[in-house]
């Protein structure tokens, strides 16, 4: 068989035997018994930048449909990119008992540096994307960019993450038309199936309605968008909420922490008031040091969430027992990302009509285009 018969999964994370060509023969130079070999044993992995790659483990001799291998080299590393062997015949060797992985454990251990994120790894198992993949770079897919007034244009994007409603990727080339996105920027794209069964990837880059800061003030549009999404969970409604959030100011409940000197002064004032705490009403307390505001964190089960609110009234009881600060969403995300409790996400309006932004989406929101005029 060859690569065209199997696609990248025929080689990815599999042991395969290739008959020698000039490139493969050169790859085992310095290996034991290289001059006697007529084949090589390889293990396939994906280099995020260079694409599908074969780690060369040992030379060998083919006899019928089987092969015997000479000793490999733990000191010499050799690898071959797919392009050099894409037309060379090979056959896959099963390793049900794990003997090959055990024998070449040292070499395979080095390949852990190329492990992908769980999301990217999952995307490699999505067979419906295969028709859009670059043959030598399985993480790169052809995405058709669309925008009102422009012709659809195919561009390459490298998959970086998977979301519930879309796939996230990085544009690998500069579009010829002005879609508003450029090489190196993050895009969201979708998969669609045509009536004849063909599957393709696309990204709709038609700008949404432009907004002003006044449109977003008070959080009315944001609340309406969340309510609409909760009634009809489409990808368009999901992105509408994210785009509004990206440009919004939100309320963050916090605990006020006084410095030692200020805390002592406050405690003395309370002690002096004795049983008549009402005497403190109306008095002004001026701090000598900066007051630290520590964002509150909500817990659900064994997960923590960073709460934000579109308005003060959505905070409920939190508005009474805590301080609150108004911050731009792009300033909130770093606070959530760096919080010591490692929140699983940000939750908007947790007590009324909640909307959850998983931590995996933080970067997507940060890289969205502003809709503010």
What is this structure, in a nutshell?
The protein is an alpha+beta fold and 373 residues long. It contains twelve helices and 18 strands.
**What's the helix count?**
12
Which percent band covers the strand fraction? 25-35%
User: How many discrete structural domains?
Assistant: 3
Category by helix and strand content:
alpha+beta
Please outline the major beta sheet.
6 strands, antiparallel
Shape: elongated
Distance between the termini: 57 Å
Rg from Cα: 29 Å
Structural overview:
The protein has 373 residues and is α+β, with helices and mostly antiparallel strands. It has three domains: 3-114, no CATH class; 118-204, no CATH class; 215-257 and 292-366, no CATH class. Helix content is 24%, strand content 29%. It is built from twelve helices and 18 strands. Strands 1, 2, 3, 4, 5 and 6 form a six-stranded antiparallel sheet that branches. A five-stranded mixed β-barrel has the order 7-8-9-10-11. Helix 7 (220-231) runs antiparallel to helix 8. The longest helix has 14 residues, at 260-273. It starts with a helix and ends in a 7-residue tail after the last helix.
């Amino acid at each position: 068989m060859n690569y065209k018969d199997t696609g990248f999964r025929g080689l990815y994370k599999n042991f395969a035997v290739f008959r020698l060509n000039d490139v493969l023969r050169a790859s085992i130079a310095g290996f034991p018994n290289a001059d006697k070999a007529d084949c090589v044993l390889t293990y396939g992995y994906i280099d995020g930048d260079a694409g599908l790659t074969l780690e060369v483990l040992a030379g060998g001799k083919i006899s019928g449909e089987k092969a015997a291998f000479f000793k490999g080299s733990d000191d010499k590393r050799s690898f071959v990119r797919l392009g050099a062997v894409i037309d060379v015949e090979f056959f896959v060797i099963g390793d049900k008992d794990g003997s090959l992985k055990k024998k070449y454990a040292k070499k395979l251990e080095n390949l852990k540096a190329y492990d992908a994120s769980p999301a990217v790894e999952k995307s490699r198992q999505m067979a419906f994307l295969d028709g859009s993949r670059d043959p030598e770079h399985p993480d790169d897919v052809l995405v058709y960019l669309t925008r009102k007034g422009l012709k659809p244009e195919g561009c390459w994007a490298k998959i970086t993450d998977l979301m519930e409603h879309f796939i996230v990727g990085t544009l690998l080339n500069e579009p010829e038309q002005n879609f508003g996105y450029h090489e190196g920027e993050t895009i969201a794209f979708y998969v669609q199936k045509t009536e004849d069964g063909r599957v393709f990837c696309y990204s709709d880059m038609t700008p949404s309605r432009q907004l002003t800061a006044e449109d977003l003030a008070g959080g009315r549009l944001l609340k309406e968008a969340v309510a609409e999404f909760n009634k009809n969970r489409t990808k368009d409604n999901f992105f509408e909420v994210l785009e509004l959030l990206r440009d919004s100011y939100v309320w963050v409940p916090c605990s006020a922490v006084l410095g030692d000197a200020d805390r002592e002064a406050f405690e003395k004032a309370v002690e002096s008031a004795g049983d008549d705490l009402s005497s403190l009403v109306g008095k002004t307390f001026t701090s000598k040091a900066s007051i630290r505001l520590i964002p509150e964190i909500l817990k659900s089960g064994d997960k923590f969430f960073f709460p934000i609110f579109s308005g003060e009234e959505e905070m409920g009881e939190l508005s009474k027992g805590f301080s609150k600060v108004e911050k731009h969403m792009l300033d909130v995300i770093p606070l959530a990302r760096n919080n010591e409790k490692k929140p699983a996400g940000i939750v908007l309006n947790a007590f009324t009509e909640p909307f959850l932004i998983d931590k995996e989406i933080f970067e997507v929101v940060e890289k969205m285009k502003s809709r503010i005029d």
